[in-house]
What does this fold into?
Amino acid sequence: MFRWQRDGMVKTALNLGPNDAGVQLSAEEFAAAGYEPPFIYERVKGRLVVMSPAGPEHRYVSRPFRRQLGMYWGTNPDFIDDVDVEGWVSTSEDDDRIPDVCVYIAGDSSQERVPRRVPDLVFEFVSANRIDPIRNATTSTSGPSITRSVSRNTSSSIALSKLFSY
It folds into this structure.
């Protein structure tokens, strides 16, 4: 644990683990908390969502995308600022997500910082047999299918919907 002071108040950072799933957290608490590995933590509607780390099948499905995006970034550094695997995106005041891959294109937003910087492209690979009704709203499929997309509006907010099921 550590302490910091803001607006005259001393606060203590939380140490969170799988047993804390569902706990209500502010954006500030989520950002400052320590997390028990190897789990992945998101904040949805202000509540902590705890997920297992990506397994072999998940990594296998996402590998071609990660590889190609990384190579493109490496050969086009003036066009792509970053390709972030399991990056942190604040999608609203109540939501902090960890998509599988975030792509940041160089431009006006290059000086913005994660998690407030809006990715230009997000990849989220969703297993049809690991549906979390709070985190994902999907239907079962019998193979890879495009079911998630990302939209960006002029107010620089991001809407995550489903991208891939496997």
Notes: Residues 56-165 form one domain. The radius of gyration is 17 Å.
